[in-house]
Amino acid sequence: MVKRSWIILVFLIFLLSACSQAGPTHSLGGLPAPTAPAAQSPQLLADQTTAGSGAGSGNNSTTSSEASTSADAQRLVITNASLSIVVPDPGTTRDFIATLAKNMQGFVVSSNLYKTTSDSGVELPAANITVRVPADKLNDAMTQIKGQVKNPATDIRSETVSGQDVTKEYTDLQSQLTNLQQAEKQLQNIMDSATNTKDVLDVFNQLTQIRSQIEVLQGQIKYYEESAALSAITVDIVAQASTKPLTIAGWEPVGVVRNAVQALINGLQVLANAGIWGVLFCLPIFIVIGVPLYVVWLIIRRWRAGHKHERLPTPTPPVA
């Protein structure tokens, strides 16, 4: 009986020892398993991402103000120009403009040489070309292009230079890019520390979207920078022969028609001016002065008629 009690006691001690050795961690090869960090839920990831973005915005306030100060010091302006000129040979002038742009470290955007038909039925060449040159050489390029015409007073049909201030848009894009880059860093840190496969995939999807937005912003910023650095010049080139009036044995019917139309316009203009003067000048004067005079004249006329009636003698009845 005593022996059986000892056996039961030893078995109980063995069970207690085994229970004390069992714990929440499992061993592999005698090494304790590392404690895994608590899995982060997608909502927690989103909160951390938002917090990271907010921190990035807070840290970026100084950067944004510095960018605004820099923008005030140096504006970002996109300057473009357009010309319409008349030259003897449009093809030669087109090649000259293309060479000029290349010599100025620019390039040709588009170039076209085609034919037009004059009023006399003759085919004549024409061209148009668009080039980009450094913005600081725009005036020099315009001067050299206009130097290709024979008579600047008549052969330069139109000239336009326009500027677009994109400083605000450029500064806003840079601020958005900085915020997205800060958010990208925060998401990268979260993904590096995440162990749950679903959480990793969620963060990866957010990273993909943010990187796509960053690439779009970088493309827009690059477009503004290149557009401001290189000015576009569009030139329409017309052959000089196409602008000459039609002549028949020294007679210019187009000129006669033009003079007749001009004389008709001048005559109609005189009549229109007279009508305007009559309505706006003569009519008010007639109303202010003529109407009262007419009323006075009527009064006097009635008074004279009544007075004359009173002076007439009474007729004598005839003697029976």
Describe the structure.
By secondary structure, the protein is α+β, with helices and mostly antiparallel strands. Among the domains are: 42-71 and 168-228; 78-164 and 231-243, no CATH class. 62% of the residues lie in helices and 18% in strands. The protein is built from 9 helices and 7 strands; from the N terminus they run αββααβαββααβααβα. The protein has helices spanning 2-21, 42-59, 61-73, 90-103, 138-146, 152-155, 167-193, 197-229, 253-311, and strands at residues 27-28, 31-32, 77-87, 107-117, 123-134, 156-165, 230-239. Strands 4-5-7-3-6 form a 5-stranded mixed beta sheet. Helix 2 crosses helix 7 (167-193) and helix 3 (61-73) runs antiparallel to helix 7.
Query: How many individual β-strands?
Result: 7
The H-and-E topology, N to C, reads as HEEHHEHEEHHEHHEH
Q: What is the rounded Rg?
A: 48 Å
Q: Strand share of the residues?
A: 15-25%
Low-confidence stretches: 1-62, 67-73
- The number of helical runs is 9
Span between N and C termini?
197 Å
Gross geometry: elongated
Give average pLDDT, whole number.
75
Helix percent band? 55-70%
Please describe the biggest sheet, giving its number of strands, its sense, and whether it closes into a barrel.
Answer: 5 strands, mixed
**Strand order within the widest sheet?**
4-5-7-3-6
Structural class assignment: alpha+beta
